[in-house]
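User: Okay, second chain of the day. Same drill as before: sequence in, structure tokens out.
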Amino acid sequence: MAYTFQTFVQNLPWLPPKHERRKATNPFKLMTMLTPLQWCFFLAGWFAWIIDAIDFFAVSLASTRLATYFHKTAADVSLAITLTLLLRGVGALIFGLLSDRYGRKWPLIANLLLLAIVSLGTGFIKTFKQFLGVRALFGCLMGGPWGMAVSLALENMPVECRGLFSGLIQLGYPTGYLVIACINLNKHVAAVTGWRNLFYAGAAFSTFAAVFRLVLPESTWFAEQKRLQKASGVETTESRKNTLFLREVGRMARRHWVRCVYGILFMSAFNFYSHGSQDLYPTYLQKSKGLSAHQSTVITIISNVGSICGCFLGGWISQFLGRRLTMIAFALFMGCMIPLWLIPDTFSGLAAGGFFVQFGVQGAYGIVPVYLSEISPPAFRAMWPGVAYQVGNMVASASAQIEATAGERLKDPKTGLPEYGRVSAILIGAAAGVLILLCLFGLEQHSSHYEEEAPAFAVGPEKYFDDTHDGDHKHETVHMEEATPRAHRV
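Assistant: Same drill. Structure tokens below.
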């Protein structure tokens, strides 16, 4: 019993070791530590994540117009959001495995070009069934960018920079929301039939991101692993590498299934937390608070400025306070801001509530890329975090429908208007509570040097990584093999 209690106390979120906190210096100094190529890798990943947000939130912003155009209810349109979230895990698994096996470049380019094609095709649909079908395909494709973007961006930079840049890459999502919301302000786009332009814009942005990634080389880390594999002198065929890679996938699942379950639970709570505050927010402002579509879009933009500020600060602060402590602090802050999100009826009051709630939500979310990367099996940094993230999306896929259906049934006794806001507040409050509990009992490997590990397709990696191993590739899970009882084992 004493040992169990001691283990529990040791695993609680604590401050990182002093030598790691000293590295968390001025954010502008951290930015100067990156080389031009490292900046380009980061921007390539950042653009890919922006595209994901632009494609996803086009539906949220146009939900009222889509309902009018297809003669459906808001709950019916929210089914498209549910389908998108439901199928993201498929794309994360497929493109993540391709990235971990063949590199960070071509799988990401293919993913972005396919997104551009499907986004363009959305503008030509005529029926609601076609719309749902396209969004289902979209969901599968949208599962790919996050894992590949995060692995590309973070694995090629100094360890002490990863907290800050984790927040910066995650703020690509609210930035994408901000971009599509600004486009939505255009009077032609805001017309009932103007929703098609949102998807045309998404296709253009996806194509740009693919071209930008095309002109850059392969990830430095991945290219170096291929060079070391060749220099090891072990000759092997591509078929043999594929067989070894698939075997390592199975071994990873057997050895780290508890960690896999934790990652999915963690991201399920996070996605209820995030999507519960975003997906039906424009509808809440228009139908529950009586704002115009233009006013709703402006508040959405203000809210996403809060998201951007939160992501930046959350990622940077986590280098000082630790990943889990920072996430807990931002979740508690968000909870304190919920009354400001619900009570006001004025434009300024609702704008302030939206800003501070999203500051808290995305402040915690800004830590997710580096946190999942640090606790993931090192050889599967594109697939494992991406699948955990997107399966969490799948679990939370019904959040928009829950909010829409419950909100339509729950009416304000005074006005008779739907209570979308109250339902959303309950949902995100409960998700924040679960998230805090998972952070208290979870894992943390602050500033893990996962870039020192070999890829899963390597043959004979002990010859050039660590000659103390016995050739059973134990190095591939060196950070993850033990069920780390201490909060910060580097």
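The chain has one domain: 17-217+237-477.

User: Thanks, on to the next one.
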